[in-house]
Write a structure and sequence with these properties.
The protein is α+β, with helices and mostly antiparallel strands and 65 residues long. The protein contains 2 helices and 3 strands; from the N terminus they run βββαα. It has a 3-stranded antiparallel beta sheet, with no helix packed on it. A hairpin with a 4-residue loop joins β2 and β3. α1 crosses α2. The protein is extended, with a radius of gyration of 15 Å.
């Protein structure tokens, strides 16, 4: 894999090109307990949204002023 760090709109992002899958990957990586991850997936499903959208809502609520 080829890795780059770039800045976009004030955000730094690490991007990697996966030649085998022919994709560029740049994700927010969080390490959480597998039980917490499973519970979050269930909550997201009950809310009718993806885990990413559900987590975004949690982050917004936690950082609202």
């Amino acid at each position: 894999m080829i890795a780059n760090v770039m800045e976009y709109k004030g955000y730094k992002v690490s991007m990697e090109f996966d030649a085998e899958d022919k994709i560029i990957v740049g994700r927010l990586m969080l390490r959480v307990d597998p039980k917490v991850h499973a519970a979050a997936i269930k909550k997201a499903a009950k809310s009718g949204v993806s885990l990413n959208k559900w987590a975004e809502g949690i982050f917004k609520a936690a950082t609202a002023q």
